[in-house]
Write a structure and sequence with these properties.
By secondary structure, the protein is α+β, with helices and mostly antiparallel strands. The protein contains four helices and seven strands. It has a seven-stranded mixed beta sheet, sandwiched between helices. The structure holds coenzyme A (COA). The site of coenzyme A has 22 residues, from strand 4, helix 3 and helix 4.
Amino acid sequence: MTVATTDPTAPTGGPEPSDGAGMSPDVRLRDLEWTDLARLAELEQELFADDAWSEATWWSELAARPRRDYVVAVSADGSTAGYAGLDVSGDVADVMTVATAPAAQGRGIGRLLLDELVRRAVARGVEAVLLEVRADNDAARRLYDRAGFEVISVRRRYYQPGDVDALVMRLLVPKGDA
Ligand SMILES: CC(C)(COP(=O)(O)OP(=O)(O)OC[C@H]1O[C@@H](n2cnc3c(N)ncnc32)[C@H](O)[C@@H]1OP(=O)(O)O)[C@@H](O)C(=O)NCCC(=O)NCCS
């Protein structure tokens, strides 16, 4: 596994290496497998509550490969520490999700997963990686900001209930620079 802590493909002023405590987390990254899905559905409940994906949704995502591309972070004890995924269509990749298990947060796993998504997107020849994030999700916003993503538009009151804006963020990557 290659992990980009500094991304040479980034635009000027792009990603900064995370200086968060506990970087180089003790996890390994691998492709999502069907045996992960039940645990991912449990973690979704803890992490996303009303917006949680069910196990059935995860089966659909797995069936949508290779357009969908998911990676799982596995701890030394074999537990699922986090997961993340992309939708790749033409020149653009959309981040479908990035999530770290509650007990594993703040150790650099989110950044590790995001860097792996960007690496995979670049390898597939996209020109840009896009994502949507709730304006009130401070942890995710800092993660994306530090990785070089920039806000390109705002969808007012996109998340309901609550009238929370969605920020659309983008990372431009030179095409074919895998
Ligand atoms: C967002 C999330 C994936 C971050 O995962 P993580 O493994 O804790 O993140 P990392 O340890 O890699 O930290 C990445 C950056 O975010 C910052 N960060 C992490 N948690 C934070 C918090 N609660 N508040 C502010 N910043 C935070 C870190 O300090 C780090 O920035 P740094 O490089 O300047 O130190 C995690 O909080 C999560 O799973 N949240 C619930 C699901 C979710 O909202 N996903 C995003 C959907 S768009």
